[in-house]
């Protein structure tokens, strides 16, 4: 419907403007250039009060006339605002219903997406994985096929990450096992057990197995020299240095040091020699052999000759 609103008659205000202006100028003329003296203060204050009174009466008249002229406009504004409120209220009611419908659609789509997530997690054997629903997945314009693709990408990336972690962990365990085997082998060769912590720095993944083996042997050799020759006062520290790689490196390998043999967990062995001559019945040969094996296990060196 077309809005019909127009001003029928423009308001006109008649006033004796020229007469009032001339009267005002003549009223204040006597004060132009006036220099107030002490004996004039009382009279001047009365004149000031009169000036305020006249100005206030004129301004009050202005306000009254403006109010009268503005009244039709104010009434028109109230009428139009009332009509606008009718449209606004109805629109808000419709908007509420639309939002309820949209939220219902989003909730239904949320359930569908959750079902797809669980299905993919089951198929890909990743029940522990948490996949958060992206807000844009719930938009009406986002197709379920596109969402499925993104879910699969997330799962694929997760599985790849887990596989890399597993490979890294296996590599670490293999390296530790290799170090342990080398330590045990050289402990037999050098007839000296050494603590694993002396070799823990060799778990560095940048070291090759050949370098690890070389450095383990170096540690055993240094220990043997220390045991056989004693530790001189000026060199009472055992320094274990990683062997340099054959290929050139931009940075030198770090040097791992152990301060003293005691701190390194290396105990200097104190030995004694025991000589035994035994004569026994042949019926006890097996028992004697068993005792000899136990004695051999406890000794660094052990030999026997049966006559």
Automatic annotation (TrEMBL):
Pfam family, one: DUF1351
Keyword Coiled coil: yes
Keywords from the named record: Coiled coil
Coiled coil stretches, renumbered: 41-68
Name of this chain's protein: DUF1351 domain-containing protein
Species, as recorded: Desulfovibrio litoralis DSM 11393
Lineage: Bacteria, Pseudomonadati, Thermodesulfobacteriota, Desulfovibrionia, Desulfovibrionales
